[in-house]
């Protein structure tokens, strides 16, 4: 399960990310609302932990924008505010649940698991098609000219990041953040290793290197 934490209190965000990673989740972290909206709109997540008081764009606006765009990813709002009107505002913008700081970590995990049970698969695009390539994000299957191509887990994760932004340049750091998350401290060239493997399996022209910028999945 992939979670996105949008929280500007960096110490809290890091603490939550470490704890949720230990629970078995794959966690990405951003610290402002504008970036949170971009990430939640362009990548598949199973749930978003969304703070209300954020720089760039507050949580209410982020939530409202996602819902207006038809994104049904479960959203659990986090805020230091208290009171029934604040809670009502969060729920009115489309949030699925609401938790007031300070909160119990045990309660947070329970709320997350409850939302995931109620909304299995929400927020994920079922499939992305790029010419002869079909990437089924929910089923985690890849087909080339109608024939299934078996991929290892991390190979699929890297391809998924490129497929969700097909035709766009995706930087190495963006792939690292999404696939290996915040805690990765190894060699960033690991992305190149997986891109080479994908090219061997899918064809050398499927993924283009844009020098100094990143990689682009061709759409034709």
Can you offer a commentary on this structure?
The chain is of the alpha/beta class and 220 residues long. Helices cover 40% and strands 21% of the residues. It contains 8 helices and 12 strands. The protein has helices at residues 10-22, 33-42, 59-68, 84-92, 105-118, 153-164, 172-179, 190-202; strands spanning 2-6, 26-30, 47-51, 75-79, 97-100, 128-130, 133-136, 141-144, 147-148, 169-170, 207-210, 214-217. It has a 5-stranded parallel sheet with strand order 2-1-3-4-5, sandwiched between helices. A 4-stranded antiparallel sheet has the order 6-7-8-9, with helices on one face. Strands 10-12-11 form a 3-stranded antiparallel sheet. Strand 11 (207-210) and strand 12 (214-217) form a beta hairpin. The protein is elongated. The protein starts with a strand and ends with a strand.
Question: What is the compact description of this entry?
Answer:
The chain is α/β, with parallel strands linked by helices and 220 residues long. The protein is built from eight helices and twelve strands.
Features:
alpha/beta; five-stranded parallel sheet; four-stranded antiparallel sheet; 8 helices; 21% strand; elongated
Question: β content, as a range?
Answer: 15-25%
- Output the structural class: alpha/beta
* Major sheet: arrangement of strands: 2-1-3-4-5
Fraction of residues in H or I helices: 40-55%
One letter per element, helices H and strands E, the order comes to: EHEHEHEHEHEEEEHEHHEE
Overall average pLDDT:
85
Tally of helical runs: 8
Oligomer: single chain
Spans where pLDDT lies below 50 across 5 or more residues: none
Give me the count of strands: 12
């Amino acid at each position: 399960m992939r979670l996105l934490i949008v929280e500007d209190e960096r110490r809290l965000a890091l603490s939550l990310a470490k704890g949720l990673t230990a629970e078995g989740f794959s966690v990405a972290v951003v610290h402002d609302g504008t970036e949170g909206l971009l990430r939640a709109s362009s990548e598949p997540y199973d749930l978003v932990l969304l703070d209300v008081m954020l720089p760039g764009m507050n949580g209410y606006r982020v939530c409202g924008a996602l819902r207006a765009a038809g994104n049904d990813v479960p959203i659990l709002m986090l805020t230091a505010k208290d009171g029934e009107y604040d809670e009502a505002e969060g729920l009115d913008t489309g949030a699925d649940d609401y938790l007031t700081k300070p909160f119990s970590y045990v309660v947070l995990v329970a709320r997350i698991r409850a939302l995931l049970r109620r909304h299995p698969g929400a927020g994920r695009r079922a499939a992305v098609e790029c010419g002869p390539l079909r990437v089924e994000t929910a089923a985690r299957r890849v087909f080339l000219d109608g024939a299934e191509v078996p991929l290892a887990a991390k190979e699929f994760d890297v391809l998924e990041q490129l497929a969700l932004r097909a035709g766009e340049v995706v930087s190495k750091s963006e792939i690292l953040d999404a696939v290996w998350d915040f805690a990765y401290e190894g060699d960033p060239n690991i992305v190149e290793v997986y891109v080479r493997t994908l090219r061997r399996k899918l064809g050398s022209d499927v993924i283009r290197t844009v020098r100094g910028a990143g990689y682009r999945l061709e759409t034709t």
